[in-house]
């Protein structure tokens, strides 16, 4: 009779326990969870705080009792595994309620301890108004502070998923909110110019967004009937705030694994092979605590996301019970709702490509989420990164109010399948006016990419516009009405695309014409006209829309 | 100087014209359109009639003037190409305004004539209240009838895309509507049980839906101040109606091609090779008029949809002007909005697999469009067809109120990329509570499929339940509350899954236990318990939900 012990009862651990039972009726399965809750919806916590999810009990997907009834799993909450004896194949468990300790033997041990919020060494952080958010007790503490302190101002430090979601929750509750992010952008999986759309949305909703600013110190002010915090920021400003959320990131929980002498990867996560086996073949590890392989580069990486954790848990159970499953790397596919926007990405971003010294090209497309003549169409701003030689897909990013998840899903599948940008031209996606376009966002991006690969387009990018020389001439091919209120690039001239054939003689043949329009489509029409008439030209990919948000 | 003539100025023709000009500034390009309009949004026509698209001009994407200004294309509306002289490489054109005829020489000719509505030989159809819908004048005629006749009752014959959209348009206008469909289901790209959800939606919205019923004759009744139609149906019923839309399908417009001696395929569409070249290398053809290759089988097929037409037009232009592009077959990816539902599919359906004698397996999943604890989640009903040996994806179908387009897009990409259902397990799709689930619909369907392939699940399907023998026992593992109001299968017994371990002794070991639950998930848990305890068992895939809609 196989005995399986599982450390951690949320995504990866719970998936493994359920799968293990489905595979074996007679395995003994014990799941230890040092907290009070198992299998809770940690991705839902900010939405309960913000009021979208009214009912707290909806976050509790399973209980120890329900797990026992359905899966015959012995779930021991408030029981912490504090040591592993690999020789004896046993663990020491501490009962956190009465402090007693005991040991359990295992045939297989699964580590799914998750990751813990990073708390930076900032003076004054240890106070009753400062919280992180990782589990149900964290959430309850935040809700208690909201009830007792009735904050008028909240501050969130960190512009990742949880930071953005907590910012939105506070704004939704009518609490004036500051978001403090040390980097020059929120949502680091996308590149800065794509994050620009998110910055715009955040500011439009009235959030006090500070980029490139760090929290330096916190002072806890306790008066007779009130308490608050005074925050000092790295830019010299300060904020008086009533609740502070620290959401700068997480680090893998590896102490138990380290003390047991298991191999820890270069990124600080527990090392596993593709079968989710640690350096000890009887011990598996999954989820936020493990080091994964990047799907594109094969390099080790940390991807603390729910999808990989769930699938890894299932696979670890398969492998413990004689099925053979290999985890096939993580693309880091991610999405975040930020007020009315969605921002999403898969694969590598431009920052990572630059760091790794990889040769790449990029295209931008801004086009309607569905047929523009049908109500409700919204612009999808889409960026695709690829190898200009082979057409290999490196990554994709999208921002918009509609259809963002769908486009990144399409790219995530295409990338995982090893499709090239040439093949993306042929994708046959659902089309009816309420859902898409006959030439979808992805087809259009593929057309632009292939024009570059085939030499039918010569791109220029927004960051090159500041460095134009006297040998170049900047040409806006939009209509004059679109240029109003300073909505154009200084130093340009304007000939609308539909007048270009008649007015081509106004342009010099000895200069390179740098063409731009609103999103790059008319620019391409103008580019082809000029080049086919013997001009030298380049077209600004993504047009003025990309340029403006990138240089804002 | 290359001279390109294009017959037909909508999707395929217009795409080809624009692409040709971008590739060559000095090509002479003439586009003939026998109608009054080019490049109009034919997919939008029903939505203007129903009032979703208020502004008629939004349907006119381009005009001859705008085409000339931007692409220097000579657009000749009300000019019909009536003959091709392949020897002389010229066409005879009839000016439909003055009746004059003239010839134009070509280097390359592109045929994009589209398809025409099929009008069956039914007595009495030729009357002022009967319309089809294919272009702007058809739409205007329908709008005129609506204005002048103020119909209280409308009848639509044919439950394809246009029929369903017109049915919805009429209902939306407050007109009581009958939908008459000769087959036992609407929306033939999906299988009948999946169409069942659509039938339910249609009936719930108050439409008089008649399946398996044909229109037999029409009588035009003209009184003093009113006119109406009396319809005789094949089931003996009749309907008094005030407007009749015939939408039973389209057939390729091939007369011109036939008369020119071009090869016509077995399906009745113009034959082309993968480069969109007809049997005459100087003549290309694209869109609804051509025979395409089915992506899965390689067999010839007709797929009158906008996406393929647009991409084929672009490719034909590429090939005429020295680029090399091959069309890579059509999956028939399609979607239709039916009131609050979307119904979509890609690849082959079960009917086609049965006809072709292909061995296949199928799985059903009914699961939430995004995290069920986050507001707005709707059930996606998903069917996947695959090769139980190789795991090759044959096709997929989905119905639901949210997230249907996304799931079929994912499947369309996966199928085109040649992914297997094994690989679908590893898909890493966007997940945050407002957008998806950590285990997406597609991952879940892949898990079910792989359980079957690996021998970890033995499925039974809804159509086998009627043929159970005395050697089989039907077991409902849902809770008693779910069985109320007759919501269970006659002759079953009920043991809730969470009581099964304690009550397993109630079950006979010599019979095969046929397990079912609501959607198949708890059924699988019960199946694993029983099989691992030495019982013979099968699990009803898709559960009672699939069974109920399939047998309704």
How many independent structural domains of chain A? 4
Q: Main sheet of chain A, how many strands, which sense, barrel? A: 5 strands, parallel
Percent of residues in helices of chain A? 25-40%
Rg calculated over all Cα atoms of chain A: 27 Å
Largest interface, Cβ cutoff 8 Å:
A-B, 91 and 91 residues
Describe the strand arrangement of the main beta sheet of chain A, using strand numbers: 3-2-1-7-18
Written account of the structure:
- Two copies of one chain form a homodimer.
- Chain A has four domains: 3-114 and 251-321, FAD/NAD(P)-binding domain (3-Layer(bba) Sandwich); 130-248, FAD/NAD(P)-binding domain (3-Layer(bba) Sandwich), CATH 3.50.50; 340-454, FAD/NAD(P)-binding domain (3-Layer(bba) Sandwich), CATH 3.50.50.60; 459-551, Rhodanese-like domain (Oxidized Rhodanese, domain 1), CATH 3.40.250.10.
- The longest helix of chain A is centred in the middle third of the chain and has 15 residues, at 306-320.
- Chain A is α/β, with parallel strands linked by helices and 552 residues long.
- Chain A is built from 15 helices and 30 strands.
- The model of chain A has no long low-confidence stretch (mean pLDDT 97).
- In chain A, the strands form eight sheets. In chain A, strands 3-2-1-7-18 form a five-stranded parallel β-sheet. Chain A has a five-stranded parallel β-sheet with strand order 9-16-10-11-12, with helices on one face. In chain A, strands 21-22-25-24-23 form a five-stranded antiparallel β-sheet, sandwiched between helices.
- The termini of chain A are far apart.
- In chain A, helix 1 packs parallel to helix 8 and helix 6 packs across helix 15.
- Chains A and B meet through helix 1, helix 3, helix 8, strand 21 and strand 22 of A and helix 1, helix 3, helix 8, strand 21 and strand 22 of B.
